[in-house]
Amino acid sequence: MKVDIIFNKPNTVGLLRILLLILGIFSEKYVFLALYTVSASLDALDGKLARKYNECTVLGSCLDMITDRSSTILIITKIVENAAYSKNFRLYFTKRTWQGFSKFLSTVLIVDILSHFMYFSFALINKQQHKTPKNWLLSLYYNKNILLFLCTTVEIFYVFLYFLIAFDVRIIGLYKNLLYFLVICCIVKSFFHIVQLYVALDGLSYVENPTMKIK
Hints:
10 helices; phosphotransferase activity, for other substituted phosphate groups; CDP-OH_P_trans; CDP-OH_PTrfase_TM_dom; about 220 residues; mainly alpha; about 80% helix; transmembrane helix
């Protein structure tokens, strides 16, 4: 075990993010929201540290990807958990519309997890950086500004939705319009995840053994 790799600067940030998420599981609403927000905010820091100190590793990429997926699983779980106790949320969403919205969240989560795990596996086998794809749509998605915008808005979507539900806030006016905008951003990001999944499935289908490089 290479301790110097596991605990290098970017990986230490990644491990700290995981610790904050675990603490958030057992925390009250305000504390959870703070811990989750700090963990999400640190997402950009590990990459900057890795590039600045030349400490980019496969472990770091894997840790970053898994931590992001774990974050999404946790906050969606918290959203669903608190939805039953939010009076204003139940007034805004009928039983039928909430069932549809919860199915939307579940679909987004499944596509997110599948696409990232499949594409990361594809990138490892093909010995390429998963954020430097050859597919033009994915190249567009991994454009620094577009990726930052979509990742930020989707994180805001989850945090905002949790805020509305956990603190029983009325969804009217600006809150309502902001929620609609963030849902659209989430759908756009999920579209790119579907493209990511397609590229991974296409590439992995040509692999006959785990050591063969994809052409």
